[in-house]
Amino acid sequence: MTTTVRTRVAIVGAGPAGLLLSHLLARSGIESVVIDRRTRDEIESTIRAGILEQGTVELLDTIGEASRARTVGHRHDGIELRFEGEGHRIDFGETVGRAVWLYPQHEVLKDLIAARLAAGQDLRFGVTAEAIDDGDRPRVLARDVDGQPFTIEAEFVVGSDGSRSVARAAVTGSSQGGYFREYPFAWFGILCEAPPSSEELIYSNSPDGFALVSQRSATVQRMYFQCDPDTDSDAFSEAQLWDELQKRVPGTELTQGPIFQRDVLRFRSFVAHELRRGRIALVGDAAHTVPPTGAKGMNLAIADVRLLAAALDALLLRGDERPLDAYPETASRRIWKAQHFSWWMTSMLHVAPDATDFDRRRQLGELRTVVESAHGRAYLAEAYCGWPSSE
Ligand code: DHB
Question: For residue 59, which phi and psi values (nearest 5 degrees)?
């Protein structure tokens, strides 16, 4: 026999978008059920990006007195662009008067899960959504931890179930339906035990390809270097990994230490053809994916949630459909700006496998244009720190 659970909003996917949405809805007195096929431990240990826009941190502040991003994370007021062995600082304060915070995504997830469970949220791990039925009362057809069928009937369903979304098919008519672009490179990411090599992030272009020097804490660092998408993460020794990183960051000596985590991240740009159908909407990676350069992924997911939470308030508290009708159009404007920014940072900083001498020199011309122009620096800073929530 299939168990049926009834709620106002069914949220498929307990990533940052799904969890934050359940929190914002609860603040308005709207009940929701959140499910995720992963275990709590899997969710909390997924290594992802670490940069939060100012607007993201402000929204996370609503979880508690001040988000831990402010108290445990680190505020960054600039980044360095490095090319031809020389660093050029982009100062966020001077250009746009905003900042970003370095605070890893899995820490955001831990904070959100703890806060949702403490608030009595119906949050179920190990529950797999198999399909979503549209209708006046849409239904999520799922299987619980023991493989037993289980249905959630709601007034609205939100797909926040990541890039391999099940909800997407219910909205776009196919699991793939969307605009997309592949890239001929990937990132090799490492976590190592060492003091920071730099106080701020370094985005470095070199003839050998791109590297990013990021941080996690006083004793743990995160770095990435451009690699072939088919690279096997076990193919390099630790000494080779340091060589690959170091030659892409000429001019700064990287502080080395034991590497305890390695992963290869493939790149993709994707936007679903539709973000809403009837009583189902998509947010976050279910709706769009960006390449990681510029760290827009989670920030864009949170920006979707800000809009959708307001639209669901209007619909479920006042019967006003208009903000929901506007959601795809309003969200798309920011999504495509972020798509452009992520594509631009990626193309400007990486070296394509088939790049000619002309391409390399043009790319250096572009980098020089950005750092030497007040407009170039301001565009980069504005997009990196995030557009205001009204945009
Ligand atoms: C990190 C990841 C990014 O994609 C980025 O642009 C900056 C920082 C990180 O994991 O620290």
Answer: -70, -35
For residue 294 and ligand 1, the question of a CB distance below 6 A is answered with yes
pLDDT value at residue 319: 98
Q: Give the position, in ligand 1's atom list, of the atom nearest the Cα of 214.
A: 11
Q: Give the global pTM.
A: 0.96
The reply to whether 157 falls in a domain is: yes
Domain that holds residue 368: 181-268+351-385
49 CB near ligand 1 (under 6 Å):
yes
Q: What is the CATH number of the domain that holds 364?
A: 3.30.9.10
Name the residue type at position 366: E
Any ligand 1 atom below 6 A from CB of 295: yes
Cα–ligand 1 centroid distance for 80 (angstroms): 13
Q: Are residues 108 and 232 in the same domain?
A: no
Whether residue 53 is found in the same domain as residue 140: yes
Overall domain count for the chain:
2
**Structure tokens, 96:** 């746009």
Q: Could you read off the pLDDT of 259-308 as tens digits, one per residue?
A: 999 999 999 999 999 999 999 999 999 999 999 999 999 999 999 999 99
230, part of any domain: yes
Distance (Å, rounded) from C-alpha 289 to C-alpha 343? 11
Going across the sheet that includes 220-227, the strands are: 86-91, 78-83, 202-206, 209-215, 220-227, 178-193, 259-272, 288-289
Q: By the 8 A CB rule, do 338 and 300 touch?
A: yes
